[in-house]
Design goal:
By secondary structure, the chain is of the alpha/beta class. It folds into 3 domains: about 5-105 and about 185-240 and about 320-395, HUPs (Rossmann fold, 3-Layer(aba) Sandwich), CATH 3.40.50; about 105-160, no CATH class; about 240-315, no CATH class. The protein is built from 19 helices and 12 strands. Strand 10 (about 325-330), helix 17 and strand 11 form a beta-alpha-beta unit. Helix 6 (about 120-135) crosses helix 7. The protein is globular, with a radius of gyration of 20 Å. The relative contact order is 0.16.
């Protein structure tokens, strides 16, 4: 059995994602596809447009065989921790042969060179020194050090959005000494988070903007995805909007003192004081994000800090790695994959809420945070849902055609 993992948010699933799975199947000789997918909150620091199980359904309808969840502690983390968490799940599953990812440059050898440098403790120290001396952002510091070692061309490569995550995946594979083979799928139609349109392809960010402004996005998503969106719209479950949570998040922030942010991921260098001061004079989240942003603290990092605080995620939560593999959806091939995993996986597999009682204390805390995050996510929907759905909603099963 050949299994290829893909790491995704599918927020929402669009034609570019379908293309990636199709190209992955071609490059890996029609291997089975395991999608490791973010749950109800995503790395941008906001709720996903559509519930995780419905996104799993769409993924299964478009080429995935098994969809497992990247827990919220890693799904909402920096690129490095996001990648480490997801790659760790692939590594610990015991059946994954390949890891497929999109990138602007599919020269794996060059990307691996960069990854090895970034993993090296000596160069990590050089990056930290450059970061401290030049008062720049961390990505800029990394780029400068790599440029000195490998040249400006490599520096440019590592600053391209999809390459950034690709390099983090490779770093994680090297760190875990994994035998999983990296497979790069070149992405050259539209940029990550770009508003550009190339035929029926555009970025997920552009589609989200179209959805939120009630504009037509039909041609950018597979027809079966559109059907699921329509079904969820009718039952008040699409689209989820961060604005529906804004008052709750603002209320949470107005109760916070600088010391309350200590221990929140990515908080350092006094940023907690900037956040508290910004909260005092702001009436919207975007106003807070803009006031706190600095050259060193990007918009995305600030969004993640505030979301982590709201969800109760601490730095201690992400020091470790995902302690279980949770199944969100599968088809008949996925069932075969799970049977194969039974004798090979290195962390527990969670199929239903009853499986949680067999986890250790640390893993149960991860699951509890996930469940709380879903309770809060349910308030972002057009028709609010009650608490506890993360423990009662069933796995999505779609039989093979």
């Amino acid at each position: 059995m050949q299994v290829t993992a893909v790491i995704a948010e599918y927020n929402p699933f669009h034609n570019g994602h379908k293309y990636h799975i199709e190209q992955t199947l071609k490059k890996t000789d029609n291997s089975f596809i395991m999608a490791i997918m973010s749950g109800n909150f995503v790395q941008r620091g906001e709720p996903a447009l559509l519930d995780k199980r419905e996104r799993a359904r769409i993924a299964l309808m478009n080429g995935a065989d098994l969809v497992v969840e990247l827990p919220v502690q890693w799904a909402t983390a920096s690129a490095e921790r996001f990648a480490r968490g997801a790659v760790y799940i692939a590594h610990q599953a015991g059946i994954v042969n390949n890891l497929s990812f999109g990138c602007e440059d599919d020269d794996i050898v060059v990307l691996q060179q960069i990854a090895r440098i970034l993993n090296d403790k000596v160069y990590s120290r050089d990056i930290k020194n450059y970061y401290d001396d030049h008062m720049c952002s961390y990505p800029e510091a990394r780029s400068a050090v790599v440029s000195e070692i490998l040249g400006k061309d490599c520096s440019k490569i590592m600053m391209r959005p999809n390459n950034i995550l690709a390099i983090e995946y490779l770093k994680a594979l090297i760190s875990f000494r994994s035998d999983i083979k990296p497979v790069g799928i070149e992405r050259n139609s539209t940029g990550h988070d770009s508003a550009l349109i190339n035929g029926n392809i555009t970025s997920a960010m552009n589609i989200r903007n179209l959805v939120r402004t009630n504009k037509d996005f039909e041609k950018f998503v597979p027809a079966n995805s559109l059907q699921v969106f329509g079904e969820n719209t009718e039952k008040g479950a699409f689209p989820s909007l961060y604005s529906n949570l804004e008052t709750a998040v603002l209320a949470h922030l107005r109760k916070m003192k600088p010391s309350d942010f200590i221990g929140t991921p990515d908080v350092a260098e006094g940023i907690e004081h900037r956040i508290v001061e910004a909260v005092k004079t702001s009436v919207s989240l975007n106003e807070i994000f803009d006031k706190v942003k600095t050259k060193r603290y990007t918009h995305a990092r600030i969004r993640r800090i505030i979301l982590s605080s709201f969800l109760g995620i601490t730095a201690d939560d992400v020091v470790s790695l995902p302690p279980y593999i949770r199944v969100l959806g599968l088809n008949d091939n996925g069932r075969m994959m799970l049977r194969e995993m039974k004798n090979k996986y290195f962390v527990p597999v969670v199929m239903k809420y009853g499986d949680v009682k067999y986890l250790d204390d640390s893993a149960r805390r991860v699951f509890a945070t996930e469940s709380t995050a879903t309770d809060l996510y349910n308030l972002s929907l057009p028709e609010r849902r009650p608490c506890g759905t993360d423990m009662t909603d069933e796995i999505i099963y779609i039989p093979n055609k």
